[in-house]
Design goal:
Blueprint lengths: L1 H5 L65 E8 L3 E8 L11 E9 L7 E4 L2 E3 L9 E7 L8 E4 L2 E9 L2 E8 L9 E7 L4 E7 L5 H9 L1 E11 L6 H5 L12 E3 L5 E3 L3 E9 L5 E17 L12 H4 L11 E7 L9 E8 L1 E12 L5 E5 L3 E8 L2 E4 L12 E4 L10 E2 L11 E5 L4 E11 L6 E4 L11 H6 L1 E3 L4
Parallel strand pairs: 14-28
Antiparallel strand pairs: 1-2, 2-7, 3-12, 4-5, 5-6, 6-11, 8-9, 9-10, 10-11, 13-22, 15-16, 15-20, 16-19, 17-18, 17-23, 19-26, 20-25, 21-22, 21-27, 24-26, 27-28
Length: about 475
C-alpha cells in the first residue's frame, strides 16, 4: 500500500515552494517517530506529517561548545528481542545544556564515499541510479535542557551496535525488511559539542561496513548562516512529537464540504511562482481544467523518445505493464516479534495519463509556476468522503498489505513541461495574462484502485488528508461512474 510502503522509504522530494519537502510519510518501522527539518526550523505539522526528514543534513564544528561535554552520553537499553531504546544522559545532576541564542548552520561531507556513489545534493549521498530510493540521507535535531532522559524507542530492530564513529558516540541499527528499496538501516550520532543529534538514514543498497565508514569519516564545517536555536527542533520533540502536534489530519469530510469537479470542468486554484520582479507569490489566479484522462496497460501513450526510465522497469517482455505483487503481512509487536509476510498475490497495474490545461486569469505574468498533480484514493459512502488506504485491511492471518511495484507514490511519476529552475522539475517557466499551457501527467496504479481515484491539482500535493486547499478548491473525479 502507499502509506505502508512509504514507512520504509524516504519519499521523492517534489518542487514545492522552492525546495520545501512536500510528501507525507508515515512512521517508519512501526512506532518510529521522526520529523522533517529541512532547514532545521520548526514547522507545524499534523499527525500525518510527522515524517522522516531526509532533506535536512546538519552537522557542525561550532566555535561555542558545551562546558564539559564529556559529562553527556548516549545510552541504549534493549527491550525484548527486537526493540532498542536510545536516550541521552549526563553524569552531572546539575548539568544543563546552555544554548546560545544563535548557532551556525552547517555543511557536511565525508572522507569516505562508497564506490559509485555521488552527492546528489548537499543532503543526499546516493548511487545515481537509485536516487530517492537508497544511499544516505542526513538529518539532525537540536539538544536542549528538556532532552536529558528522553528516549526514542525503535522497534523491529534485528541488529544493533553501540560504538564510536570518529569522535562521536553513536548507535547503528538495522531493521526487519519486508520489501526492496527500503531505508532499513540508521545511525544516530550524539554530538554535544555542536548541540545536535545527527540521524543518518541508510538504504538497503548500502553495506553495513560502508555505512560505518561514511559515519566515521564525516567532515563537518560551519557556514556563514546563523540560525536561532529557538526555531530548531529538539531531540525531545523527535522523541515525543505528539507534544508538539497541531490539529489531527482530516481524513473524512461531509460530501457537501468537498467540491468535486468533473473532467472538462474549469476551476480556479492559487498559483505559486514569482512575479515579474522576482517576488514570490502564492495567490495568483490560475484556472485549471483536466482535459482528458486515458487509462492504458502499456506505455504507448508516451512519446517513445521520452518514456521515463523509472517506468520502463514496470514493463514486461510483451510490452505490457507487469503485475504488482501484494504481500499480506502479519504484524509483530516490534519488541518480541517482527512483521512477517504470510502470503502474496498479484494484481494488474494500469497507467493513468492526464492532460491538464493551466490558464493565467490574473492581470500579471507569473514565472516559474509550480504545478503538481497527486492522486487521492477516496471512499464515498453515506454522504461522507473518506481517505481510502488499500493497504489498511486485515483478514484471516494478516493485518495489512504492502507492495513495491510501480504504484509507489501519489505524486506525478511523469510530467511533460519542465524548466531548469531550482532543482529543475515541474515548473512552467512563464504564463502571461490569459495565456494557457497544456501539460501531461502520468502515474502507475493498481487496477483494483481505479474506482477510488481523484486528482488533486491544487498545487499542495496533499494525498493522505483533506488539506485546506483541497477543501477550498476541490478535487477532480477522474474515474467517473
Amino acid at each position: 500500500m502507499r502509506l505502508e510502503y512509504m514507512k520504509n522509504n524516504i519519499p521523492e522530494t517534489p518542487e514545492f515552494i522552492h525546495l520545501m519537502i512536500q510528501d507525507e510519510v508515515k512512521k517508519q518501522l512501526q512506532d518510529i517517530k521522526v520529523i522533517n527539518i529541512r532547514t532545521g526550523r520548526k514547522k507545524k505539522w499534523t499527525g500525518k506529517k510527522v515524517v522522516a526528514a531526509v532533506a535536512a543534513g546538519a552537522l557542525a564544528a561550532s566555535t561555542i561548545v558545551y562546558a564539559g561535554t564529556n559529562l553527556y552520553h548516549m545510552f541504549i537499553e534493549k527491550q525484548g528481542k527486537y526493540s532498542i531504546s536510545i536516550g541521552l544522559e549526563t553524569d552531572d545532576k546539575n548539568g544543563k545544556i546552555d544554548l546560545p541564542a544563535e548557532i551556525h548552520d552547517i555543511d557536511i561531507s565525508t572522507g569516505y564515499i562508497p564506490e559509485g556513489m555521488e552527492w546528489i545534493d548537499e543532503f543526499h549521498l546516493q548511487y545515481p541510479e537509485h536516487i530517492n530510493n537508497g544511499g544516505f540521507s542526513f538529518s539532525s535535531v537540536l539538544l536542549d535542557n528538556d532532552d536529558m532522559g528522553k528516549v526514542i524507542q525503535d522497534k523491529n530492530v534485528v541488529d544493533y551496535e553501540k560504538r564510536t564513529f570518529g569522535s562521536y558516540e553513536g548507535v547503528y541499527l538495522k531493521f526487519n525488511k519486508l520489501w526492496e528499496e527500503s531505508y532499513d538501516q540508521r545511525i544516530y550520532l550524539f554530538c554535544p559539542d555542536i548541540y545536535r543529534v545527527i540521524t543518518i538514514y541508510i538504504g538497503d543498497d548500502v553495506l553495513k561496513e560502508d555505512a560505518v565508514k561514511v559515519a566515521e569519516n564525516l567532515e563537518i564545517t560551519e557556514n556563514e548562516t546563523m540560525i536561532e536555536t529557538a526555531d530548531l527542533y529538539t531531540w525531545s520533540e523527535l522523541v515525543s512529537p505528539e507534544e508538539t502536534l497541531t490539529d489531527e489530519a482530516i481524513t473524512s469530510i461531509e460530501d457537501d464540504k468537498l467540491p468535486i469537479h468533473q473532467i472538462g470542468d474549469e476551476f480556479t486554484i492559487s498559483g505559486t511562482g514569482e512575479d515579474s520582479n522576482g517576488n514570490y507569490i502564492d495567490d495568483s489566479k490560475i484556472s485549471v481544467c483536466v482535459d482528458s484522462i486515458q487509462i492504458a496497460d502499456d506505455l504507448q501513450l508516451f512519446d517513445q523518445d521520452h518514456v521515463p526510465e523509472k517506468l520502463l522497469a514496470e514493463v514486461g517482455e510483451d510490452g505490457k505493464l507487469i503485475d504488482n505483487t501484494l504481500s499480506y503481512v502479519k504484524s509483530g509487536d516490534g519488541i518480541n516479534s517482527v512483521d512477517e509476510i504470510v502470503k502474496t498475490e498479484n494484481v494488474k497495474q494500469k497507467l493513468i495519463y492526464a492532460t491538464v490545461t493551466y490558464t493565467n486569469r490574473s492581470d500579471e505574468e507569473i514565472t516559474h509556476m509550480l504545478y503538481l498533480g497527486s492522486l487521492m484514493l477516496l471512499k464515498h459512502e453515506n454522504g461522507i468522503y473518506e481517505i481510502y488506504d488499500p493497504g489498511d485491511q486485515s483478514g484471516n492471518g494478516f493485518d495489512r498489505v504492502i507492495w513495491s511495484g510501480g504504484e509507489k507514490t501519489p505524486e506525478m511519476q511523469y510530467y511533460s513541461v519542465s524548466e531548469d529552475y531550482g532543482n529543475g522539475g515541474n515548473y512552467i517557466s512563464s504564463l502571461k495574462p490569459d495565456e494557457s499551457v497544456q501539460v501531461d501527467m502520468a502515474w502507475i496504479v493498481n487496477e483494483s484502485d481505479l474506482d477510488h481515484m481523484y486528482l488533486n491539482i491544487n498545487g499542495d500535493g496533499a494525498a493522505y488528508e483533506f488539506s485546506d486547499a483541497t477543501l477550498k478548491m476541490g478535487l477532480v473525479d477522474i474515474f467517473q461512474q
